[in-house]
């Protein structure tokens, strides 16, 4: 068992090294090189992509699924985009200005058309924000909650008036909340947009057809406004292949060209396959367990701490995640600018754990239940945790549930300790605020934590204007969370993606989304 | 015959009522909320409440059931909560791959089982019989997910003869379509072939010991003509029963095979609907599968009369 601080640092360095490799794409043997490093990109061909899940809707304002986002980033475009280091860069908005903390002015790109032929302009932006705020089924309401109103200054300038300063807003506009849908399509098609996104976006590819549970087809948008660097592919065909083994074998046998995620157990074998290249894309994800503070036993802080001091994160990451990730010190992943590497993850310390058990009035341990999804890696992780906790006398029962039951148990606080796997957001706010802020209706705060100090700090992180100041605040929050422990963080996973050797020009961005504008086939 | 069919169809009404009430209760008692699944990332409780009201899910369960039944009597199975499409459209799109898969699996099982079953019975207690029995044992014991993965590995990855996953409609592209269905049909067909082999063997052995077989042999008929003309037809009734019962299972219950081979069939539709707590879709699909089972059983009963004219229904 390794538990020294130097080992922890080494792990983090390894992780960041992998980040560097993936983002600069210098890993030897990788075929997925940037276009410039290879021969001239050529147009043509169909890229076949395998996902583990079916998409749920083609309307970005109603979507709550990660797979949807993967597709949207090729059909729609957000107002702002991310670079490989998670920096914000222009998207449909050419530039932005913040004259005062509650005003954001966006200068929009001119000459951009939606795929239905209508103009992208300030009116379209205002329409989209109003839709996100007022559409009854909008899942984006929370993300645009800080926006009071949107004024059209001129045809290509909008002024966004905020209710309160929101430092996370720019990053929010790089994903679904910033994606612009053709007002004409949204109005004329109504709920049909969920199934048919023809003409709806401005992106490098256009929606063609979606045969549920079989495939979703998009084609090159030949009128795409940006004439540099793609799109090159004629078509992209997404296929849901629910079985991981079959998905991988489909790649190895040449039936598909890309898979979005390689399971940790398969990573070594895939890396050994010379017909396939693997890219370790570090993610923004944080995998953790929420501890229910609204009822015994975890309404006792000492007992929550007893759990944290008993867990050996390094062993879990090594044995269960096979080092396809690093132990987590809190909600902010090492890929983020806000990550504070001076804060170590909580180390196993059985003596301290026993002292905490005694302090919590349970010196010989106590029984409780871990609720987790019935997925092999989750089950394995829960079993390792069960074994580790038993060494301090805690008797853990494992309750395996499907995703719907997990959500319902979490929302109704019907659990002791429940797994929560969050795919992460580009701004650290997306990994923290909604999990720990005391606000009725904040459904991701399953632990029920309500702490004035944390609340105040969370608000400050949104008001602070500089990254340095925000980073300091997130560091402070991480330390408090390590003491309060509404959640026990386990791992920041890496998301390996695998490609056939003919795929060229892929640019990995650590938000895990696969953007295919620059991709071409050899 | 007409009266029989009518009587049998009327008898299905209470069965269907029981099935729908049972499924309705079970799916609503299962923990989990479709609204949570739909809006997992949204924290807005008002939005969730509005949606619950819009979908009528704020009503007591018996009111929801009565509303659903009322719609059903008007021929409306409702709309899927998840994709808002009519349930009947969801099923319509999925039934074709399921029927094609079931048909091909059944054909494969008959092609394999008929000669093995006949030979095993005709050469009872010989090495031929032992090989047949071993095959049946293998087919029954082999879990179909493992068989599927082995078939994928050998024929898809190693030999690259057949596609690993996905579906092409054989009615649109016959060759590609057939190729896309071969591995899943073998996976399903092999297990069924094992059952049919054992059933055929034992019913043939029973028929072989009948007096009319001895008479046929005494007339000097060749063994093959005895089997073809006298034994096989009489031994078919249990086989038809097995096939009839399996048909419903093949159409609605091939979930694992559909998952592994990523086929868009009815089994996968209903399981995904259960995971999403898509109540109307689960209800509708289960109802249609139950109707399918009832009709396939009715068809089997009618076939008895055709195979053995002595069987007459009153």
Kindly describe this structure.
The complex is a heterodimer of chains A (522) and B (314). Chain A has 522 residues and is an alpha+beta fold. Helix content of chain A is 31%, strand content 22%. Chain A has helices at 5-24, 66-75, 122-134, 169-172, 183-189, 244-252, 264-272, 301-310, 313-319, 350-359, 376-390, 403-411, 429-436, 452-463, 467-484; strands spanning 46-51, 80-82, 88-90, 93-100, 103-108, 147-154, 157-162, 205-211, 215-220, 235-240, 258-259, 276-282, 286-291, 325-327, 367-373, 395-401, 417-422, 487-500, 503-504, 520-521. In chain A, the strands form four sheets. In chain A, strands 1, 8, 9, 10, 11, 12, 13, 14, 15, 16, 17 and 18 form a twelve-stranded mixed sheet that branches. Chain A has a four-stranded antiparallel sheet with strand order 4-5-7-6, with helices on one face. Chain A has a two-stranded antiparallel sheet with strand order 2-3. In chain A, helix 8 packs antiparallel against helix 10 (350-359), helix 13 packs antiparallel against helix 14 (452-463) and helix 14 runs antiparallel to helix 15. The longest helix of chain A has 20 residues, at 5-24. Chain B is globular, with a radius of gyration of 24 Å. At the A-B interface, helix 6 and helix 12 of A face helix 2, helix 3, helix 5, helix 7 and helix 12 of B.
